[in-house]
Amino acid sequence: MRIGAASLWGAAAVLLAALGYWTLAAPVEAALVWIALLILVAVPALYVVRGRLSGPSASWQRCAHDLGLAFDAEQERTSGTLHGLAVTAALTEGIEGRTWTRITVEDRGSIPSDLMFRGREPATLDRSVATGDSPFDAEVTVQGEEGAVLACLDAPTRACIRRVVGLGAELRDGRLLLETPGDMRGRGQLRQSLQDMAHVGAAFAENRERVSERLSHNARTDPVPAVRLRSLTVLQRRDPGDFVPREASRAALNDADPAVRLAAASFLGDEGMTALAEMVENGRVDGGLRVEAFVRLVGRLPTSDALGWLERMAALLEGVDRAAARRLVEAVARPEDARAETVLLNVLAGAARPLRVAAAGLLGRVGSTLAVRPLLAYAEIEPGEPELRDAARRAVAGIRARLGAAEAGHVSLAIHADAAGGLSSADQPGGLSLTAPAPAGIEAQSTDGLIPAVQEARVRRSESHRGGAAT
Hints:
The chain is an alpha+beta fold. It has helices at 2-25, 27-54, 57-67, 134-139, 146-152, 155-166, 187-204, 211-221, 225-238, 243-252, 258-268, 273-281, 287-298, 303-312, 314-317, 322-332, 340-350, 353-366, 372-379, 386-403, 450-470; strands at residues 70-72, 77-82, 85-93, 99-106, 116-119, 140-143, 170-172, 175-181. Strand 2 and strand 3 (85-93) form a beta hairpin.
């Protein structure tokens, strides 16, 4: 760095020496060159100084003319109507003599007084309505009735609000106000701010009777998928029986975003079943959304069809968490349905592992003594299935607790961690095992077929013990 600075100063000294020598050697030519250099430097400088001293009147007047507004040069004030709202821009003097620009937009209560927005303050809790547009939500706080707010905030309006909020604008008590330091001398800045403020005011002043139509429009056209989803779901909750949310939901079945399609198909009921089935089978859709679509699909299918879907989608269901598995099982085997126990025993016999665990848990709530024998088989499975084993033991204990103590002549049920060969509750006095036939709809292997598996496990365990003793 030192070498570079020295070289620069040396070059400057050589240049000045050459200019001095040339001035002495050819004074007339040198004088002309010096005059030209002075003009090139002085004229721009004078233009800037003149602009600073002359005030914003000229630029404000041109802006007012372009927007069809009136300009008062004496008061340095622009006023008129934009988008049907009264717009005023004026210069004010703040503390320490600083100049401020003040822009207001209002029109006799046409902007609802319960709507408000301002710049978001860091680490401040508020009741802001989330739009789904992450950059907007991070910068702007908007409050008011959720449907009315989302109806106003289409993509162009959000862009305008972000620009004016960055300059300090806010909406309060039915009036838009922007106060920012400086005189917005730049023609483009003042014009942009006036147009943005008027656009935002007009958006918030729209007739509230059109809220559903505007939500529907946003659900169809907004470029941000999360905003489309928010608009659609709020519209569905707001007017569930109206034709507007139904038409919007039909259109959303073709949305590019699967979350929007899921919301639309779920709202449409039987009309959305095909879309739900397509989402479940679409491997490109996020796994969580596929499971959610599956829950809503099987909840509307006949039980036999729902069981078939559980078998077809076993690969997807192997990875579901406990909460999703429980929801799926409850959707297939509705606890209030008289056939719930039958369905749960079918799920326990052949569904994906997380669903079998969930089915065992639900049997503890709704199962009868008919479920005890299959549950006992799983309660004694080897340690490779500890979660299912523990769920089966809890279910048996739950059935026992729910049904109460055994009546006279019945054998009481007791399950321990190492209770191989434990007794099951009998339906008839004096019985030692379950004698009632399997419920209709349950295949034989779902009950009796479980017992050989347990016996085989016992044989393997016995052989391992004998081998250990021989050693």
